Amino acid sequence: MPAMLRTLAQRLGLMSDTFPGGIHPEEHKLSAGLPIEMNALAPIHILPMKQHIGEACSPLVSVGDRVLRGQKIAKAEGYLSVPVHAPTSGTVVKIEEHAIAHPSGMGMPSIFIESDGDDAADASLQPLTDWINCDPTMLRERARVCGLAGLGGAVFPTFIKLVKDQRYPIDTVILNGIECEPFLTNDHALMQAHADEIVVGLAMLRHMVGATAALIAIEENKPEAIAALQQAVADAAMDQVQVVVLPVRYPQGSEKQLIYSLTGKEVPAGKLPMHVGVLCQNVGTTKALHDAILLGRPLTERIVTVSGDALPTPANLCVRLGTPMRSLLERQGLKSMEGVELIHGGPMMGERLRHPDIPVVKSTNGILALSHGFMSAAHSVEQPCIRCGHCSEACPVSLVPNLLADQCRADQFDKAESYNLFDCIECGCCSYVCPSNIPLVHYFRYGKGQLALQRREQAFAEASRQRSESRMARIEREKAEKAARRSRVRKAHAPAASDAKTADAKVAADTKPATGTDSKEHS
Amino acid sequence: MPLIMLSSPHLHGGDSIRMQMLTVILALLPATLVAVYLFGWLAVLMICTTIAVCLLTEAVCLKLMGRPLSTLLDQSAALTGLLLALTLPAATPWWMVVLGAVFAIVLGKQVYGGLGYNIFNPALSARVILLISFPLQMTTWIVPMSMPDAALNLYDISEALTLFLHGPAALAAGFDAVTMATPLGHIKTEATLGVPVADALAAYHYSYLDAFLGAEAGSLGETSALALLIGGIFLLARHTITWHIPVAYLGTMALLAGIFHAIDPTHFAPPLFHLFAGGLMLCAFFMATDPVSSPVTRLGQIVFGIGCGVLTWSIRSFGGYPEGAMFAVLLMNCAVPLIDHYCRPTVYGHGSD
Question: What's the pTM?
Answer without folding.
Answer: 0.87
